[in-house]
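Example record for the data management plan.
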Amino acid sequence: MAETTTAKIFDYPRNAWYVAAWDHEVTRTPLARTIAGRPLALFRTEDGAPVALADACWHRLAPLSMGKVIGDELQCPYHGIRYDRTGRCTAMPAQETINPSAMVPSFPIVDRYRYVWVWVGDAALADPSTIPDMHQMTSPEWTGDGELIHAECNYQLVVDNLMDLTHEEFVHTSSIGQDALSESEFVTSHTDTTVTVERWMIDIEAPPFWLKNMRDKFPGFSGRVDRWQIIHFEAPSTICLDVGVAATGTGAPEGDRSAGVNGYVMNTITPETDRTSHYFWSFQRNYRLDSQFITTQLRNGVHGVFSEDEMMLQAQQAAIDANPDYEFYSLNIDAGGMWVRRLLERMLEAEGRMAVPAAVGS
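Corresponding structural encoding:
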């Protein structure tokens, strides 16, 4: 691929499902969270249904997230005005007549895959069937756990990071990085809403992270492995990483992974502002399902890996802010990320909010 200059498109689509919280974070106590630039107050009704209202009272814009839930209604902490799940005012202090204009925006919201998803764009377009597939999060064939990272960078920088895993060779040298990453070939494909990057590394030494996991499943394992990384992106910002290793020559590239260990790193990144994002992740595995010890070890291990990414992404954001006119240059390894940016460009164009082209050159 010839050298390509890619413009820094940092806006975010609003006609999309974004994860607002882990399901356990949304309770009867209001939670404040900004999603795609929109401050929200999240809570649950008495029957457990999630609700998302704009986090500003109709009266004086007091944050509703500072209030309390009474029955199925959210009460403003300033003057006690109450709102139902649709955002309509149901009670005002010191008066019987309710102003008919007294309401706040409410947003489509759905519980799925251990997450709470919200749509802050045109509510008429909010189809829950288009929520990205993360079935490994709730499938009985998989188990795992994860965390929420408040990333001090634009959400597209996190997406770039996950679409090109060759950075592991340099950023994660003590855990999952190895020379074979940048030496191996990869295949990129795409549809109107997805991008997939597939890489296989055949007959290599297992890096420390994967050697430990092989020994968790196969005590005493030694020898070389075949390693795979299959990156699957669903617009606007969900990335499922199908990753693992198997004893070399046992058929993993042909589909038989029984002599190996397989994990799914489930990532979904929600823009908060143009310089901050909510990064939700979980590591799911399909072996030793009954071991909470392994689940906790894996979560803590991935936490350490992602902490290294956080440092790099925060430094990258600072450099971008210091060089606002600089355009990105692209290498062969950026093919997946460039297709992602083209898909995001199309989503922004459909909303009438596109400002710059996604790519310049060829």
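Summary line stored alongside the record: The chain is about 20% helix and 35% strand.
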